[in-house]
Here is the input.
Amino acid sequence: MFYVFLLLVAAIGGLIYFWFMFQSVPGMAEERFGELEPLPPDVGVWKRDEDSAEAHSAKERGLAREIRLYYDESSQRLYRQVRYRSLATDDIVETEPDELVKRKRVKPTTKA
Here is the structure.
């Protein structure tokens, strides 16, 4: 039983060590896991959604659906934001909650 406890303490210590190293050493996480894919070129630009089912539903209610990707630099996360504008007054009538967009990790190619 003592050996199980000893292995558990060692595993927890190892996890804490690796977490600390990934947070402290620049480039260690990118080298191990790969870099995040690049941001899309249209980040921060509102675009009218014309094709989705939600856009057709909004148009029937007299609204225009607009979508943009927003990059939060402090948390380094990419969000999809949706808002609805009135077609008559061009005022923002409604918004949807922000949706987190998962970015894939791309491993760097090794140069021989």
In short: Residues 4 and 10 are 10 Å apart (CA to CA). The chain has two domains: 1-34, 37-106. The chain has a mean pLDDT of 87.
